[in-house]
Amino acid sequence: MTRPVIAVTTSERSGWRIFPLVAFNVWLAGGTSRRWGAGRPADLDGVDGLIVGGGDDISPELYGMTLLATARLDPARDELERRLVVGALERNMPVLGICRGSQMLNVALGGTLDQDAYGTYQGSRKYSTVLPRKRVSVLEGTRLHDLAGGAPMKVNALHSQAVDWLGRDLRVAARDEGGMIQAVERTCDPFALGVQWHPEHLFYARRQRALFAALVSAARAYCEGRDQLEAVDEQTA
Predict the structure, then answer these.
(1) DSSP string over 162-188
(2) What are phi and psi of 219, to 5 degrees?
(3) Which of 38, 90, 114, 215 is deepest in the core (most CB within 10 A)?
(4) Which domains does the chain have, with CATH numbers?
(5) What is the DSSP string of 121-165?
(6) Which of 99, 185, 201, 223 is flagged as catalytic?
(7) How many Å apart are CA 67 and CA 175, to the nearest integer?
(8) CA atoms of 15 and 4, how far apart (whole Å)
């Protein structure tokens, strides 16, 4: 069976070390990956799914606010990823957002971010590690609950910002012990899930591999549906 093709956006600064790890997780799930970023070719016609990876903070200008603290920004990547998220969802293409990618999923759909999330949620312990030290609770009735189960999970954390007001058709799927949003998901098709942690570093954990498996499964269905439509178009041409 042909492996669905998953586009993976990365930063130019750290993508060289992040992309291979994400690609490995996609491969384990049955897909193949292409690295995208600002200045690289990015055509949704050639892929079946999209992963928006982690990296620099998103410019608050994208959600109508001003910068409250010093941050490393990448406006070119911001614009690229917002366009890709909107374009993918318009095509019914599945999307997985990782850390920054979860925030971009929310912003692209009209939501906002909390630039000082740990100041707002003072009961949330701040970590800066790829090791699974943060405890998050998965909400019942969510797709994430169906994929990964309802037991609390230990995840890693490298972020300082978090989702604030939710974008269109999104709901909260997980929170940490202080109430900070740790995952969001779309309430309707296509599949779109954003997690604030980095599951690519936790490939040894079955519940984290399930996130990539869900994306690849949805991408395969998208690919098959597209091929069927193209076949019908050829027959009726």
Answers:
(1) EE-S--TTEEEEEEETT--EEEEEESS
(2) -65, -40
(3) 215
(4) 5-236 (3.40.50.880)
(5) -TTSPP--EEEEEEEEEEPTTSHHHHHH-SS-EEEEE--S-EE-S
(6) 99
(7) 25
(8) 21
Q: Residue 170 forms beta bridges with which residues?
A: 186
- 64-121 confidence digits (pLDDT tens): 988 876 667 789 999 999 999 999 999 999 999 999 999 999 999 999 999 999 999 9
Residue with tokens 């069976």, as numbered in its chain: 1
- Distance between CA atoms of 78 and 145, rounded to whole angstroms? 29
Which of 185, 198, 201, 223 is catalytic? The answer is: 198
Q: Which two tokens stand for residue 214?
A: 């869900």
Catalytic residue among 81, 159, 185, 200: 200
Question: What SS3 class is residue 12?
Answer: coil
Residue 209 token pair: 């591999």
pTM: predicted TM-score of the whole model, two decimal places: 0.94
The single residue listed with the structure tokens 């707002």 is 120
Q: Which of 220, 224, 200, 229 is nearest to 3 (CA)?
A: 220
| Separation CA 165–CA 99 (nearest Å) | 16
Which alpha helices (H) appear in the chain, and where do they start and end?
A: 15-28, 75-90, 100-108, 117-120, 143-148, 206-236
Q: Is 200 designated active site?
A: yes
* 110 token code pair: 């009209």
